[in-house]
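Async update (no meeting this week)

Hi team, since we skipped the sync, here's where things stand on the single-chain job. The sequence we agreed to prioritize is pasted below, unchanged from the tracker. I ran it this morning and attached the output directly underneath so nobody has to dig for it. Comments welcome in thread, and please keep replies under the output.
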Amino acid sequence: RKLQPHEIPHQLYVQNYSTASSTCLCVRRWLFSINRELTLPAGELATKFIFYQAVDEVNRGNIRADGRLYELKALQDSKRAPEYLALARTLPGYGDVVFPHCACDSRKDGHVVPSVGMKSFRLHACREDGSLETQTVELTWDTITRWESDEESMAFCFQYSRNDKPLRWVKVFTPYHAFLADCFDRIMEERKWDDTGD
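Output:
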């Protein structure tokens, strides 16, 4: 999850120290727009950070390298970071936040893997053990009309429009419901940047 503005990282670390089996905090990018990412100066520390995160995302399978994996592995040296990132940015899943599999009320059997990116919000079908299936529902941002985090039911709820059909609400049951809402808010903010140039 993303830290909330009122949370202090060190206090969280100390609080979780006795119960966490591994480090409970990590630093991740909080930028979805590739256009904005490309404005970072070369050699900037943020660019190096984005490179290392991209390597990690490829290794986890969140960036789908498919037939380009060998090429990416050959570029996986920090001195070749610009080349690596240029290739990684062309691949599906680059810059997306992928959530753990969870239940969804639009699926009677099995779970979904939610994924939030600048182009769309995707729900990839999977079994209850998390093994991926072939079906993916991809919703572009202009079809999503409302969203909210429901603390009581531990769900992220969103409404989307369908061609010549009534609006539909979907619930994704995940402990990361607040983070999903944060991602949606951030995407909408970044889309305004692209529209207004801010």
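Quick observations from my side:
Residues 30-90 form one domain.
The chain has two domains: 30-90, 97-196.
Reply here if anything looks off.
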